[in-house]
Task: structure prediction
Amino acid sequence: MSKMKKTLLLLAAAIMVFTLAACSSSNNNSGNNATNSNSSGTSSNSDNSSKASGETVELSFWTLGNTNYEDLANQYMQDNPNVVIKIQNTGDQTAHHNNLTTALSAGSGAPDIFQLEIGFMERFLAAQNSFHNLNDLGAADVKANFLDWKWAQASSVDGSFQIGLPTDIAPTVAYYRTDLLEQAGLPTDPVEFSALIDTWDKFATVAKQFTDATGIPFVDSRDLIYNAVRDQADGQIYFDKESGEFIGNTNPQVKKAYDFTIKGIQEGWVANYALWAADWTQATNDGGFAVLPGPAWMLGNVKSNGPDSAGLWRIAQLPEGSGNWGGSFLSIPKQTKHAEEAYAFIEWMTSQEQQLKTFTVSGLMPSTPALFEAAEFKDHTDEFLGGQASAAEFASAAERVAPIYYGPLHDQTDSYIKEAIQNVQEKGADPQAEWDAAIQKIENLIKRS
Amino acid sequence: MATTAQTSVKTAVPKRRLSERKRDNLFAYLFISPFFIIFGIFGLYPILFTIYLSFFKWDALNPMKYIGLQNYQFVLEDSIFWTSFSNTLLISVMGTIPQLILALLIAIFLNSAFTKFKQAFRVLFFMPNITSIVAVALVFSAIYSNNGMGNWLLDIFGLDAVAWNSGWWGVKIAIATMIMWRWTGYNMVIYLSGLQSIPADLYEAARIDGAGRFQQMIHITLPLLKPFIIFTVMMSTIGSLQLFTEPYVFLGQSGTSSLRSEGITMVNYLYSEAFSNSFFGTAAATAVILLVFTIMFSMINMWASNKLGGDTEG
Result:
């Protein structure tokens, strides 16, 4: 009899396990339904929660890379005792965004607040149903605080949908080495050098002059010089911002960037280094090139790649304008149950005062132009750059950036063009044939989309 | 707790109708169920979902759209897919055949009586296999960069520089050497255990009959190693059809999201369709096509090994 009992218990336990599993999945579903209904009626929900202020709200926050967001969150929690912020940080960009994709498509597991990097913006901007429109939560009121082009990166084309509030930006400048310019008899002062290369034609002339005089390539790599010209396109690069159609083969700026890079390769002033490769890193230190067109965060790479070249680098403005490469936004996925509280937190996070702290602690460039006038910002100098007021230089670059529409297939399209340029440089292929082949591959890609 | 009692009461009624034998069976199934549940969730379900997904257009975030066989048509008409197919075959031949020959030679060398420090050599040769592939690929990309060690060596011998990052053969040679470096030791260990299973008296008898070392190798070592050789060829074929990390890290250096057509393998193609382009439908179709290819190659392998000698199974 006791044996019978035991087997019964075992069986019951097994059944429990299965029923529990079933329960938890149905719980999830009902949870989702609750969130959905919440999102439609957020205002009423938040009224309740603000009335019952004793109740604590827990917000999960996925952050990316080196930031001071933990410190800011701690401070926010002190000021708002009813809010608990749980930060989960990673340095792996791809995993960070793929995890969100998984959570969104699974219908659960997304954080309340997500740090969205611009490189992955298009993927999520295409999934507006999964995110709160921050304009509905009050973002329209703070729009004027931010740089126009930065704001537009996280807006739908018509501007009605706002997926994220801007955090940091990364405008592009020209990093250059004074010792090498001196060798070629060129001016080394940032203002004079910027004036010397203020158009791309002048840039090419100076580049050729430099390489003829020293035998050293002027620009570090084909990819960065191509990016620098490409990013000055007028509002759109490969895809039309209204129709989304491919315009890369007719956009004059794309062709200009391609031809300019090819010209540099053929005249020998674009170095044959692949970006991020070990020999590129080494050349940064050893003076293998004079100019590196890169975004604000590239300064960190130049510093770590070229410890022996400290004090020799300066920043100049790029010819004809500036571009942007990188920077993040804070978004609120629809799965959250605390949209109002999450929004209050991110609005606070992206305010001028907090962005100034992030700049001083982590060196991230703020996206609020009013800060560019602040003394702590303007007077910030960098010994690696020979004491140049670097922040002010980045700020003037930031003010020269124009808003650009990328489109969901931007990266892939771009990599085909870069492949063509690489073939010309490394294999001596015919530029026109390579261009045609790249366009062919892009058209195939679009067909599959 | 109350529910437990209830369920046990409920289950108790049908329970009595089960015979002893049936109950034993039921328990057996219960005990093996963890594997099947986990396999079902993480193995079977993704496989079935992949096949289902291959008929849809999906970007993982918006609703799925049924498009029939169009994904297969896209993939099969895409020249980059066929490039990835021929790349996979070429790289696997370039990486596997010299590798297996080298592994066999090293194994014979280590097995010969006069080699000292056998243990140390075995460890050394096996080391690459347990080294992180990403680290390996990064070190190799330093060797095979435009101004790196590889071209420097070629320069010393008065040879022209090779475009390791974009040359049709350059990329393949670079990736094939990475595979060789990593797997030679692994196959060597398998051959070594094979060699040690060959009884020494066979060699003794051969020596008495006046056979030289070379003859011993051809007539004793190789025939008796046949099952081991077939095993390694099989594993290497399947492994190289799934080649991913080496080309991904080696060619992904430039920071661009695509892989150059000189080195892209079928799994790389699949990965970039899904995670760079967000074309999950065509990626799933590629996975199904890859499955068909893998089955085909395994069958060819099995047919060939049966042809070579039916007695190899034991």
